[in-house]
Amino acid sequence: VLWRGADGTELPCYRFGDTGYCTYAAGVRGARNHTDTPDPAVIRARLAQTLEHEAEHSKVDPILLFDGCDHQEWDEAAYAAIAERLGRAGDDGIEVVHTTLDAYLEEMLAQRERIETVLEGELREPARYPVSEDNQWLIPGVLSSRVWIKQWNARCQTLLCHWAEPLTAIAEGLAGLPDARGYLDVAWRWLLKNHPHDSICGCSIDPVHEDMKYRFHQCEGIAERLTIEATRALTARVEGGLAEDALRIGVFNPLPAPFEGTAEITIQAPADWPAFNEFFGFEPKPAFRIEDAAGKEIPYQRLAQAMGRIKTRIRPTRFPESYRTNDVTVSLPLAVPAMGYTTLTVRPGETRRVGRADVALPTRHPGHGLATSERSMANGTLGVTVEPNGTLTIDDLRTGHTYSRLLTFEDGADIGDGWYHGQAVNDQCYTSTGAAAEVALVHDGPYLTTFRVRTSLRVPEAFDFAHMVRAEDLTTVEIDSLVSLRPDSDRVEVTTTVHNTARDHRLRVLFPSGARTRTYLADSPFDVVERPIALRADNHEYRELEVECKPQQSWTALFGEERGLAVVSEGLMESAVRDLPGRPIALTLLRATRRTVMSDGQPEGQLLGEHRFRYWIVPLAGEPDREGLTLLGQRLAAGLRDVQLRPADVALAGGPGALPRQAGLLEVSGGAVLTSARRQDGALEVRLFNPSGERSKALLRLGDLAGNPATYVPVDLESRPLGEPQPIRGGAIGLTLGPKKIVTLRLE
Fold first, then answer.
1. How far apart are the first and last CA of the chain?
2. Gap between the Cα atoms of 144 and 589, Å rounded
3. What is the C-alpha separation between 153 and 526, in angstroms, rounded?
4. In terms of pTM, does the model score above 0.90?
5. For 551-591, what is each residue's pLDDT tens digit?
6. Computed over its alpha carbons, how large is the radius of gyration of the chain?
């Protein structure tokens, strides 16, 4: 068959036969008697039957006898029967050749025009009856098995694609850092070793997944170190000197869109800087002022502080130097160029001589908080109310629509395994609508207001497999959510920590949208897909039921009759829109299972302990913006980074230099999403895709950090040129991308 991809590209594909993808030499392996002794006559007959069947159903001359499956040894008896036919044509006119998949593909592609059947779409059809005709399996439950694996993998991918690769590309050209390609290759190699399907799917035995932790650590450590060195080198080389009593902070934005909003930074103020006290000295507060790249003072909101923290300065030829700082977390307004940085300067607060002592003057900034009551907040765009049971009500002040029962937690039994969520017949699904919740106002200021909502969800402590019911004894799963709102923001930010004490269950968080629509959108690798909300009408006739949970990369959204909702998350690969009147988005947080396929059980699959999740609730004022939501997913995952340098650190990092105090590499606008920016063979290489089903135009505007590339050339996924170099005029590249098209450009 031909599979037509999202951008119209057609790929010849082979669908394995009635024995599934592990064809075992097209069914020949099964020719054994009850003592597992091979029967040569039966093997020969099976081989002839299989060859006849495959030839009858193939449109091209080459047919595939594929022998392979997970961990499967080769079958000597089966190969003996095949070897008898090697190199000669049988009575059926078929010659059997021992070859490779590459050789098969080359011969098959030469007859591509003879393939007439064309398939489109996601190819997520579940297995059908009878087994003799379809031994395929979709196995959808792996999207949420051992969720920590998906989260850690997402963090590593973000570190490499949005931080280490683009930042080292900038620092090599502008700060003289050595080529990091070797380190990046090693980091990617460690990560890819965690991508075999039973590993990344979280459906193997405990020791396999325990080994994955080491590989994640190696990838993360390399990518983190490369990012730190690049950001330090660039910050050190910013123009202008740094006074002994000043602190330079470089704030970096890795995404191809400018950042404008509020963000949090933990200021590492030297411990000997002055501190002031309110009233009669209840708690000393470090006194400091923050200036932007133009030298203008920036107001800030204090969030937290930790005094006397130990830091270490690493010198190349001496022992590490230890020093102490007073760390103060602040929220402040920032503007950072696309794929670039801005520079802040922090100076100690002023002091006044009082008697024989120098007393620090307070550093405070006016501004009203966003809290409107003891359990509500608003910013002019959204109003948020925390209900007594811990759910949220959001008023979209732009449209007048209200969204209720958001942040409802749902807990049901899971008697499945790493492959499937198993729903018990005798299930009891518990929700937080009747749970107790404690509400605390954590931050209330002009730049960030945060409520802490602690929900105590009482659920069965396990599943009673002896009686196939959820246990009568209950345990408390504490769900601790920080719910935040920023000025002028169109989203509510949530960080949820689950203290899991239960076994054999699935925990989801629900967001009723109220949108009247039959379809919804979700992002996928290099695409955004539209899916029906309702399950197939003939679902009861399938051997493997279609389930409502489907894959996403970072967001799910729906819109209908002038209202809609999107939920953007980090490292959570499973979501659904339930076919209920309220059209709730259901985001799977974790599945705790005791079973691993072909084993009596693996205890680590129960995921006991603490788990942390981040997601944003985005009421929609119009149809979902595919590019915007994908960028929002990248923003949630990547965030901003800062590096803080004292004069001694500037010298160690190679400065000072002549870089501007604020600059960017590349800005992308229009209908395209950038997924990669890296240095390849000495040139900058960027990759973009069009997530819509229509042709779109995009503009790539080069910033100060890009240098002066004169031309660009499209390349394939292996960096091979696809055409002639084109001139870059006015520091910008205009592109027209076909529907769902992926484009990679090399700038020289």
1. 40
2. 8
3. 17
4. yes
5. 999 999 999 999 999 999 999 999 999 999 999 999 999 99
6. 30
